[in-house]
Amino acid sequence: MSQETDSVAICLRSQEVAFKAKSLARDIAKRPFFSNSWLPLALQGKVQLWVDLFPKSLGPPGPPFNVTPRRAKRFYLRCIVWNAQDVILDDLSITGQKMSDIYVKGWLVGYEENKQKTDVHYRSLGGEGNFNWRFVFPFDYLPAEQVCSVAKKEHFWSLDKTENKVAPQLVLQIWDNDKFSFDDYLGSIQLDLNCMPKPSKTAEKCHLDLLASRERDVSLFEQKTVKGWWPCLTEQEGTKALAGKLEMTLEIINEQEHEERPAGLGRDEPNMNPKLEDPKRPETSFLWFTSPYKTLKYILWRRFKWVFLIFLIVFVLLLFLGIFIYAFPVRSRGFRTSSLLLSSFHFFLPFLSSGLFLSSSSQTCLLLGLWDWSLSGQPATYEPA
């Protein structure tokens, strides 16, 4: 008899638990409020509720549920962009070489007003980029629901903010910087922080298959810190293609850890946790019209140095040939003369005739000597009277 009583009690208890579970899983209903005044169809608001019915056979209901909304906790996502590799070369330099001026832009979904970007790696000739740049994204997170709580006004005329719940997703884009036109979009990657692909340890092992395979997914909220290489995608003729690879460190910390271990944006102070050094970029990475010397040295000279050398040699040869032809002796009226000497004679004649250097008798002797020398090719001597 006691076994039957125990079995009946267990059955009733299981029904009670199932009923409560069903009540908890019930959707919350929304009911509108209308006015009974002169605008009966005017909506006055909405109420969210659910109704539970308890049969008398189960006895008095238990304590009421606490329906106070959960409060989101403040977290910080620190994203350090170290390097980029195999980025699409989208531009042509002034010498005809393929290149790109690379920078990375990032933000959290729902927090688009807090977009951040790195500095520019100019003149990337091989698709590489060096940044050592830190992004810091604050966000409000509900751990029980694994969503971000975003409160913002839907319109600029709205009085109150509307709370929306979105998945914690990080968006990273690679762009090509242009000074005289709009920047060119190269590729992007979107990472769900609760279920993100585990990165590759090296750039050589980073491929598009990393995003297709979901077996190695990790949660950044559980692992706290992840470092490695992720591929960025782009679409070319309707198919997905590799746009580049990013080496990054992703870290999630709470508000207390953020105060204990501060870190600045980019490479600004406080530059710690970790400290970011200036990137070691190649000497060819510069903005060409702001550095004329580097432009001449690393762009024009490296590509056209043989053209410059050949032009210089030809110019020197032509110069000596012109001097030789100009100084070559010719015959004029039966006399052997030199065009160079005649030019010298005509050059000094105004000074000699003006009497600035010599006396009148000395001028006469020098003029006669220069004239005979120019006609006969042999110097002659005249003594003054």
TrEMBL record:
Q: Which GO terms describe its biological process?
A: macrophage activation involved in immune response; monocyte activation involved in immune response; negative regulation of phagocytosis; plasma membrane repair; T-tubule organization; vesicle fusion
A GO molecular-function descriptor: metal ion binding
Pfam families from the entry?
Answer: C2 (PF00168), Ferlin_C (PF16165)
Q: Which SMART domains match?
A: C2
Q: Which residues cross the membrane?
A: 306-328, 340-358
| Matching InterPro entries | C2_dom, C2_domain_sf, C2F_Ferlin, Ferlin, Ferlin_C
Topology of this chain in the membrane: Single-pass membrane protein
Just give the chief location class. membrane
Keywords annotated in UniProt: Calcium, Membrane, Metal-binding, Repeat, Transmembrane, Transmembrane helix
* CDD domains linked to this entry: C2F_Ferlin (cd08374)
Query: Where is this protein localized, as stated in its record?
Result: Membrane
Mind naming one GO cellular-component term on file for this protein?
cytoplasmic vesicle
Residues forming the C2 domain are 59-207
Family per UniProt?
Answer: Belongs to the ferlin family.
Q: What is this protein called?
A: Dysferlin-like
Source species, please?
Answer: Notechis scutatus
